[in-house]
Amino acid sequence: MVSKRSPFYIAPPAPIATFAERQPPSGALINVILQYADVQQPIGDGRVSLRLSAQRAKDSVIKGMLGREARRLAEVSVLWDEAEGEIIQVMDDAETPAAAPDAFNELDTFELTELALDYIARHKSRAKARAR
Predict the structure, then answer these.
(1) In sequence order, what are the residues at sequence separation of 6 or more whose Cβ sits closer than 8 angstroms to the Cβ of residue 115?
(2) Phi then psi for 72, rounded to 5 degrees?
(3) Measured between alpha carbons, how far is 121 from 42 in angstroms, rounded to an integer?
(4) CB 26 within 8 A of CB 34
(5) pTM reported for the whole predicted model
(6) What is the number of other CB atoms lying within 10 angstroms of the CB of residue 53?
(7) For residues 49 and 79, is the Cβ–Cβ distance under 8 A?
(8) Residue 8 CB contacts under 8 Å (≥ 6 apart), including other chains
(9) How far apart are alpha carbons 69 and 28 in whole angstroms?
(10) pLDDT, tens digit, 9 for 90 and up, residues 84-119
(11) Positions of E strands within 45-126
(12) Distance from C-alpha of 22 to C-alpha of 72, rounded to nearest angstrom
């Protein structure tokens, strides 16, 4: 039997794509970085940036401890203070949804100093003099 649609049928709209809010790194993830970090970059003043290399992150023991969160190991690093023996900062480099194109970004604009404006004026006047 063939069903017939009403001539006034309106199809429901397609679902709107939403971005899942990114969760901060878990304590287990931070503990794994502290325990298994094989990339250590000295920052200075007794501080070290700790993270796991891609090869180390593929270790089955680490994957077993973290489960699905293991894929975030490449995005998270820990700033460690050797002298105090404490975490200074956890840095999460995960991508965030792109900002709207109309959004104001402070880095998109700049202001010239008086010295720069003087330099530009002198350069323009020299270029005009050469063109004559």
Answers:
(1) none
(2) -85, -5
(3) 46
(4) no
(5) 0.57
(6) 13
(7) yes
(8) none
(9) 9
(10) 999 999 998 866 555 445 555 555 666 778 888 888
(11) 47-51, 76-81, 86-92
(12) 11
